[in-house]
Prior knowledge:
The structure holds 2 protein chains of 2 kinds. Chain A is of the alpha/beta class. Chain A is built from 13 helices and 7 strands.
Amino acid sequence: xxxxxxxxxxxxxxxxxxxxxxxxxxxxxxxxxxxxxxxxxxxxxxxxxxxxxxxxxxxxxxxxxxxxxxxxxxxxxxxxxxxxxxxxxxxxxxxxxxxxxxxxxxxxxxxxxxxxxxxxxxxxxxxxxxxxxxxxxxxxxxxxxxxxxxxxxxxxxxxxxxxxxxxxxxxxxxxxxxxxxxxxxxxxxxxxxxxxxxxxxxxxxxxxxxxxxxxxxxxxxxxxxxxxxxxxxxxxxxxxxxxxxxxxxxxxxxxxxxxxxxxxxxxxxxxxxxxxxxxxxxxxxxxxxxxxxxxxxxxxxxxxxxxxxxxxxxxxxxxxxxxxxxxxxxxxxxxxxxxxxxxxxxxxxxxxxxxxxxxxxxxxxxxxxxxxxxxxxxxxxxxxxxxxxxxxxxxxxxxxxxxxxxxxxxxxxxxxxxxxxxxxxxxxxxxxxxxxxx
Amino acid sequence: xxxxxxxxxxxxxxxxxxxxxxxxxxxxxxxxxxxxxxxxxxxxxxxxxxxxxxxxxxxxxxxxxxxxxxxxxxxxxxxxxxxxxxxxxxxxxxxxxxxxxxxxxxxxxxxxxxxxxxxxxxxxxxxxxxxxxxxxxxxxxxxxxxxxxxxxxxxxxxxxxxxxxxxxxxxxxxxxxxxxxxxxxxxxxxxxxxxxxxxxxxxxxxxxxxxxxxxxxxxxxxxxxxxxxxxxxxxxxxxxxxxxxxxxxxxxxxxxxxxxxxxxxxxxxxxxxxxxxxxxxxxxxxxxxxxxxxxxxxxxxxxxxxxxxxxxxxxxxxxxxxxxxxxxxxxxxxxxxxxxxxxxxxxxxxxxx
Lengths: 438, 353
């Protein structure tokens, strides 16, 4: 082989060395937290564009932050949805109930009543308030952190707990990991453990609604970390190609387990800005401002219903607790972050707003919180009568083989018979709880 | 007794004798089902205006409109995912994946979602989709236009996998798949779209019109899933095959004068275990043939089942003739393809025992 032009020197010796950029969060455990780099515009400053606005004209909405509730606890500007006090109190009640539910279920996991739980603390507005802006029969495709939607839609709490306990009352027959709810009656799609798969499915549902000339729309929720999945790209692409009546809600809570949002690309672009690249209307919203969350979802729903196309909403928020009961955030982030978070707490902000407008007071808040905790406690006790995980009050063995297909094929029938035989070998005198089980 | 169909065209009220190739039969299955059920939609890359790269969807968009037959972005993940969402809504989507070799970007949606929707939601949501995809080799398709990935799908609980070997079956089976409420993978052996392939690649290929299996009734008829078909009946040995290989083993047996009980499985999940057991217990010998690679291929499952269930009837070890454990080569296609020589050797061996 001939010598290189530089003789014996290796190619590129005179060029600067390249280096790999690996994102690093600003604060690690023990660090003092300063969030002053986060730009928080005054509430009410953002104009409210027409719902049929061309995505090309939405640059500011994808990079700014839509806010309604100000430091003065008053509602400001054109995004104020002007909800009546009763609706605001209902919203506050659902958010408080969601928080009380999370507290109790988290404790239930620690007490060994179930294997697993995930809280949504600090993100209640992104599910409860957003969901309130949809019609009850609009189809939602949630991730695992939108339990607030079920509470808002009136799904019986005992069903949620039965599912978490995988007991004999569990509508999903103990097949699913806790919190992977499903309720067709409440237009709540079955939750999958595989991240972001629900986003293009929501688009498909919306396409179906359009194909049939229906008036229902679809909305999906996904965490900012999961937007890195290829499915999210497919969702955005199909949504824009077919002008699907769908809302793509991205809950940017800054953290994907231990990875900060930089690993999903947040260092260089907002998540809302991604929508513009597809030609999707995009809004970036204060996710801890319940009124802004409601208003943005309502805007997107109106747009979808008018056949004006999909919307991507980034709810800018903060995951106040650990990722799950299996996670300890003190291992990767500063404990101060939660207190320093510049957008505050959604429940507190709505409460303070209601007090500010003279429609609420601390006494009623305390009473409501107490009642929520009592309700969750009472419902938990009722659910425990159906059993807790591992205490035998589960669905019969044969149900493990059902619903794989519509009908039981021969190989599953044989395996079902085997499982029942094994159970009889283990419990020749019958099941410990006296149940038949088969 | 197994409810196996006979090898020739159906009897009874088939009106005029019409002969179709497999492409025309598939096209007609789509047309017939779409005309009966408004919820059926056809989608995929190039399936709309153009009518599909293999012409299987020709004319459908013109007839049913763009909201029922439409082109998609080049995104197998998006195609399958959208079909899952449409199924959840209540439609009956029939997505096409242009080549089975390109189904992998859609695998998470198929395996984690479509296959498990009914189970994980305890029947609240279902995925009544039929994924059509041309598959198999023998066409100089090289590594990415020749694969036979059926074993991947057979391994997934909740998916059905169907592979026709004749135009008559292609139409009847596809109609059954589309009307089935479970997600089905419908693999179309593209080598036999236009005519059956004997495996003697140096001999001229005959068009379907010369074979009775191309007599396809007009209108609606179904072939039950999970039921095998006797391609030939014989006493010397049982051969389990599907797709293109049914015709190859038929030709090799004819050439060698072997009277084999050839079962065209048609559906590999759920399998017609009764027909298999009945045949192997009759013949005492079993040869399994597929194009797909050998290790952990579907033949391994068939071999295990036959051994477990027919052990005391077996007079010789169960043999497998398959593709080699390599990616599908281009220039050495006929050295790779499980053709007459490899099948012939296996037949000699199994019949010598």
